[in-house]
Amino acid sequence: MTTARRPAAFLDRDGVINIDHGYVVRAEDLAFVEGAPAAIRRLNEAGYLVVVVTNQSGVARGYFTEADVGRFHDHLRAELAAHGARIDAIYTAPHHPEATIAAYRADHPDRKPRPGMLLKAFAELPIETRGSFLVGDKASDVEAARAAGIPGHLFPGGDLDAFIAGVLALATTNPVFGEDR
Ligand SMILES: [Mg+2]
């Protein structure tokens, strides 16, 4: 069976999908950024693979475990499903160079601004690089996108659905969008 390749919309998590209270991991601390479920639904309907790429140094710092993060992501997916929105894949970078937990003490290639999570997604998922992009709320997100060879857009806050609609309009009206690498 062949799988048609589709462009991916890479989304940072904290500050893009959920409000960044700092080391969010408890279900009760999930609060969506305005328009986030609608934005993800919009991307689903437009045919993008929605891939979350998130640094979670709280694991390295011993604040919570990878299993805790996984449980939070199950909750996140369930809450999105209630809005008719779907995340296709989530990549997490639990490392930090100054980790308190030795196993996670690394300047790991997955940790943004390095592009490891995006490159892994390109290798593992049926992603068409052309037309793919990233939305993040930090310069390190945009830097990771650039290092992976796709455009990165800095989300300044506000309504994520309106912001994503603007990104998609740009992608549609400018045929060379995304080719400037
Ligand atoms: Mg963020």
Automatic annotation (TrEMBL):
EC number(s) per entry: 3.1.3.-
Signal peptide residue numbers: none
InterPro entries (alphabetical): HAD-like_sf, HAD-SF_hydro_IIIA, HAD_sf, Heptose_bisP_phosphatase, Histidinol-phos
Top-rank lineage group of the source organism: Bacteria
SUPFAM superfamilies to which the protein is assigned, alphabetical: HAD-like (SSF56784)
Enzyme class name: hydrolase
Compartment(s) where it occurs, according to its Swiss-Prot or TrEMBL record: Cytoplasm
Key words of the record: Carbohydrate metabolism, Cytoplasm, Hydrolase, Metal-binding
GO molecular function, one term: D-glycero-beta-D-manno-heptose 1,7-bisphosphate 7-phosphatase activity
Membrane-crossing segments per the record: none
Gene3D superfamilies per record: HAD superfamily/HAD-like
PANTHER family (UniProt xref): D-GLYCERO-BETA-D-MANNO-HEPTOSE-1,7-BISPHOSPHATE 7-PHOSPHATASE
Family: Belongs to the gmhB family.
NCBIfam families: HAD-SF-IIIA, Histidinol-ppas
Name of the protein in its database record: D,D-heptose 1,7-bisphosphate phosphatase
